[in-house]
């Protein structure tokens, strides 16, 4: 078996298959989006992204995705800390449930939010009595984005906390540092790469969320119409060029975020 794997023909065929799979599954669809967006000329592309409804949907998506990412950084770091530093009944179950948004269809997640926070629910009714509107408004969109991106920060921070040498904290305490100072100067720098990388991945993922958002957003231009739902509406209206133009903005942002994460990881390894 080892001699077969070392054979040049086998190696070349295996690499070619992987590259072909990568090109067909990822590269060609991305190139297709870019091609369609410019198929009617650069002027038409500029007009498509300059459309007030399209531009507002992009700005709204950026703002809400940033809010969701910040919430995930804070809550995700706290949950990762609890899962690593504390032992309690049900900890393995809680740890396994962190990955539930990855396994659950996003439309199901949106339905869960709709049933839990909708006007006919106990929480939704109580919020309405206090003058708070959740479902079909921006808070529901942020909640949906937080739900689908929930595991990113947790899974990025957990291994960093597990690999943190306890002797570093003990040395800081021995030198007279207090608990808050030790946390700020020893623990936070160790968690920072995971917090930043996980937060950027959560932001990138929230930009493109559709399944959970479409069920809880009111789809009002400038108020609750996010980019993914706008793209879907353009496709339904047989305006593929307009949909592709907005998609390019999201794709470019995602590429930029991934590039920044890779650069940060490479610099971390060099250190």
From TrEMBL:
SUPFAM superfamilies named among the record's database cross-references: MetI-like
Domain named ABC transmembrane type-1: residues: 58-261
Membrane topology category: Multi-pass membrane protein
TM ranges: 12-35, 64-84, 104-127, 134-154, 182-203, 210-232, 244-264
Keyword Membrane carried by entry: yes
The entry's keywords: Cell membrane, Membrane, Molybdenum, Sulfate transport, Transmembrane, Transmembrane helix, Transport
Pfam families according to UniProt: BPD_transp_1
PROSITE patterns: ABC_TM1
Record's subcellular location: Cell membrane; Membrane
Superkingdom: Bacteria
Signal peptide start-end: none
Recorded family membership: Belongs to the binding-protein-dependent transport system permease family. CysTW subfamily.
Function in brief: Part of the ABC transporter complex CysAWTP (TC 3.A.1.6.1) involved in sulfate/thiosulfate import. Probably responsible for the translocation of the substrate across the membrane.
PANTHER family with a match to the protein in the record: SULFATE TRANSPORT SYSTEM PERMEASE PROTEIN, SULFATE TRANSPORT SYSTEM PERMEASE PROTEIN CYST
Record's subunit section: The complex is composed of two ATP-binding proteins (CysA), two transmembrane proteins (CysT and CysW) and a solute-binding protein (CysP).
The protein's name: Molybdenum transport system permease
Gene source species: Paenibacillus forsythiae
């Amino acid at each position: 078996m080892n001699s077969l794997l070392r054979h040049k023909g086998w190696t070349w065929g295996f690499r070619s298959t992987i590259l072909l799979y990568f090109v067909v599954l990822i590269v060609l669809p991305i190139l297709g989006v870019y091609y369609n967006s410019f198929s009617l000329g650069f002027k038409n592309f500029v007009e498509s992204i300059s459309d007030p409804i399209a531009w507002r949907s992009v700005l709204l998506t950026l703002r809400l995705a940033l809010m969701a990412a910040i919430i995930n950084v804070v809550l995700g770091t706290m949950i990762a800390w609890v899962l690593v530093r504390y032992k309690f009944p049900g900890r393995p179950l809680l740890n396994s449930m962190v990955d539930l948004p990855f396994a659950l269809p996003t439309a199901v997640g949106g339905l869960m939010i709709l049933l839990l926070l909708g006007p006919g629910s106990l929480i939704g009714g109580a919020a309405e009595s206090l003058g708070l509107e959740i479902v079909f408004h921006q808070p529901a969109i942020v909640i949906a984005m937080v739900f689908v991106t929930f595991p990113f920060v947790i899974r990025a921070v957990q291994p960093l906390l597990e690999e943190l040498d306890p002797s570093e904290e003990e040395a800081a305490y021995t030198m007279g540092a207090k608990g808050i100072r030790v946390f700020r100067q020893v623990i936070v720098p160790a968690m920072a790469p995971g917090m930043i990388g996980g937060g950027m991945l959560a932001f990138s993922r929230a930009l493109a969320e559709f399944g959970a958002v479409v069920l809880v957003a009111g789809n009002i231009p400038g108020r609750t119409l996010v980019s993914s739902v706008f793209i879907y509406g353009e496709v339904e209206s047989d305006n593929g060029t307009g949909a592709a133009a907005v998609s390019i903005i999201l794709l470019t942002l995602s590429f930029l975020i991934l590039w920044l994460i890779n650069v940060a990881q490479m610099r971390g390894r060099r250190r």
